[in-house]
Amino acid sequence: MRQLVVSDFHLDPTEPARYRAAMASINRCPCDQLILAGDIFDAWVGDDNASPLDEEFLDFCGNLGADTQFVVGNRDFLITEEYLAQRGIRLVEMVAESQLVVIHGDELCTLDHGYQAFKQEVRDPTWIAEFLEKPLGERQQIAQGLRQASRETQANRAEAIGDAVESEVNDWMIRFDTRLLVHGHTHRPAIHSTPFGLRAVSSDWGDSGVGVLIDQQDAQQSVSLIHLAPSAMTEHERWNRQAGTPEWKRNS
Ligand SMILES: [Mn+2]
Questions:
Q1: Is 118 part of any domain?
Q2: Do the Cβ atoms of 230 and 29 come closer than 8 Å?
Q3: CATH, residue 241
Q4: 191 C-alpha vs ligand 1 centroid, how far in Å?
Q5: Is 146 domain-assigned?
Q6: pLDDT digits over 185-239, tens only?
Q7: What is the 197 CA–ligand 1 centroid distance (Å)?
Q8: Which among 40, 41, 53, 68 is least surrounded, fewest beta carbons within 10 Å?
C-alpha cells in the first residue's frame, strides 16, 4: 500500500500551467491512495466559483487509485463534501489511521495567535453561512483582501511563528498514538525525528514540489520525501520501521 501526501499547491486559475505541472508531477509517483493535505487551492469562495481547471484537477485526483482524500487547508476550507464526492474524492477532517496521521498543519502553529483567532472566527458555522449567502463578486473581493493581509503578515513576522510548535507535535502523536505525523502548511519540507516518532512535512509548489510517500508492506512501514516534477521523480530521504517496534531507522 503506497500513500502519497501532497499539499499547498495554492492553485489559481490565473496560472493554468501550474495545474498541468501538478497533474504531471503526481503522475510520476504511482500510488494506491492520494491524500490532498490542504491549500490545494489558493482560495475557495464557494463551489459555485470553481473554474474548469479546478474541476479538471479534482477529476484527475479522484480518478487516481482508490479513495482519494481531501483534508481542507486554511485557504480551501469552504469546499464541500458533496462537491468533492461528485469528483470521486472524500472530504475528511484528517486522516487518522493506526499507522498514519495526516493533518493540514495549521493546527500545530499555535504561536501564530493572530491566525488562530482568525481561524476560530471563519470556521464558525454562522460566519460560513453568512459568507456563502453573499454574491460571488463580494466573496471574491473579501478573499482577495484576506490574501493580501496574509501576505503582509507573513512578510513581517518572525520565522518561528509560522512553524510547528514542538509541544503540539508531541501532543498530537500521543493523542493519536501514532509514530508518524504528516502535514503541510508551513512550506518547510523535511522529515523530523521527534521523541514520539517522525514528523514528515510536504512542501508548497511552483512547477515542482515535495510530497511524502508512505509505503506499508507486511511487516514494514517506510516514509520518504519525494521531489516531484513533471519530468522526474527523486526520492530524498527514506526512513523504515518494523511493525510493532517504535523505532525509525534512516536508510538514505
Ligand atoms: Mn496552509
A1: no
A2: no
A3: 3.60.21
A4: 18
A5: no
A6: 999 999 999 999 999 999 999 999 999 999 998 889 999 999 999 999 999 999 9
A7: 23
A8: 53
Q: Is the pTM of this model over 0.90?
A: yes
Pick the closest to residue 128 from 141, 139, 137, 140 (CA basis).
139
Kindly give the distance from the C-alpha atom of residue 242 to the centroid of ligand 1, in angstroms, as a whole number. Answer: 32
Amino acid at 45: V
In a domain, 51, yes or no: yes
- Distance, in Å, from the CA atom of 75 to the CA atom of 191, rounded to the nearest integer, reads 24
Count the domains in the chain.
Answer: 1
Distance, first Cα to last Cα, the chain: 21
Judge whether 119 lies within some domain.
no
Whole-number Å distance, alpha carbon 19 to ligand 1 midpoint, is: 18
pLDDT, position 252: 75
Q: What is the mean pLDDT of each run of 10 residues along the chain (252 residues)?
A: 97 96 96 97 96 98 93 96 98 93 97 92 95 96 89 80 93 95 97 96 96 93 97 95 88 82
Cβ(57)–Cβ(23) under 8 Å?
yes
The residue segments making up the domain with residue 205 are 2-109+200-250
Q: Which of 39, 156, 52 is nearest to 103 (CA)?
A: 39
